[in-house]
Amino acid sequence: MSPSLGDMEPAEAESVYFNEYPPPKALPKHEALARAFIDLHVEANRRVVLVTSGGTTVPLEAQTVRFIDNFSAGTRGATSAEYFLQQGYAVIFLHRQYSLLPYSRHYSHSTNCFLDFMDEAPPVPGAPNQDHGSIVVRDEYQDQMRDVLRKYRYAKQNNRLLLLPFTTVAEYMFELRSMAKLMRPLGPNALFYLAAAVSDFFIPRSRMAEHKIQSSELPPEFQGGGAVEDSAVGGEDEIYTGENEAKPASQKKLVINLDPVPKFLHRLVDGWAPDGSMVVSFKLETDPTLLVYKARTALQRYSHHLVIGNLLSTRKWEVVFITPDPPHERWIRVPKARRSKSISGVEDQVGLAEIKKGEKAANSETS
Ligand code: 9Z3
């Protein structure tokens, strides 16, 4: 049995992992866009943050019909990106395709569907078309929408926001590595803010079925095209028929065997990212007793600047900042009275004051 990526040194795991996959088709285009974007902001001596956002998928088949996903909507990433822009950063927004985006996130869901903000004005007397009026924003939303629109336009017209999508965890890894290396000319003006929910487990390409996994037995002449030898999915000995006596014998039980995704934060901090840059990662847990321990362990293991811990159930209202320097652990909470009013939660409270503090510390460490 070949060794698991988790047992290898980070640099070796990197080369094994990236050699297994073809780079994403969009990568050359994304790299060209990012290069131009970064050059522009290096020239202006502007800070650039790479914000990662949304969930990564783990495909079960190479020609993917099914995949494992996670809950992340991209609220944290999209909201934080707006605050970075407001603070004068240029933002590379590496996000899960179709997840929330800065600015448009305000009008994206059924609870805040953009159509509910619109109205049809009465036709203007004397205008050629008397059967319809113009589409306008309803009076009560004018101020809020104008404000969002102005910020969005400003970011767009001044080239402050670059949107780059990914879908799978492999695509995410390729994009993260490329972006970090491209950001090297930025030196201490580079910041990494890793809010994407990255899958911890995946099926290595070599053990992935090529075609759609079949749920029922195929005649012998069709066998061999789907699951591969030593497959992570539905090997012959993994077909269960006896689990439930009432179940027809032709129904297979799908057994999925996943490997740990290599911890590339190590490579980002020690290899890919520019010297003097700041790295902020997130830690998500559901068990409150584990959160601080896991966040602290991540900070010690990867020696970066800040881990922001959050619990699935309270992530909109509280986060914990784990830092190498005192106070080491600091909770930030949205006061109860303000919770229902803010869909973006702690970002609205914290702003970027904390990140800025950490940034100063990171810069003084390197100067
Ligand atoms: C987070 O913890 C983010 O805050 C959330 C945001 C995903 C909870 P939403 O998108 O949720 O606003 O709905 N991200 C998790 C980061 C993560 O997966 N970290 C990995 C790890 O801790 C790699 S750095 O191992």
From TrEMBL:
InterPro entries from the xrefs? Answer: CoaB-like_sf
Q: Which SUPFAM superfamilies match?
A: CoaB-like (SSF102645)
Chain coiled-coil ranges:
none
Q: Which residues form the signal peptide?
A: none
Annotated GO biological processes are: coenzyme A biosynthetic process
Transmembrane intervals: none
Any single GO molecular-function term of the entry would be: catalytic activity
Q: What is this protein called?
A: Uncharacterized protein
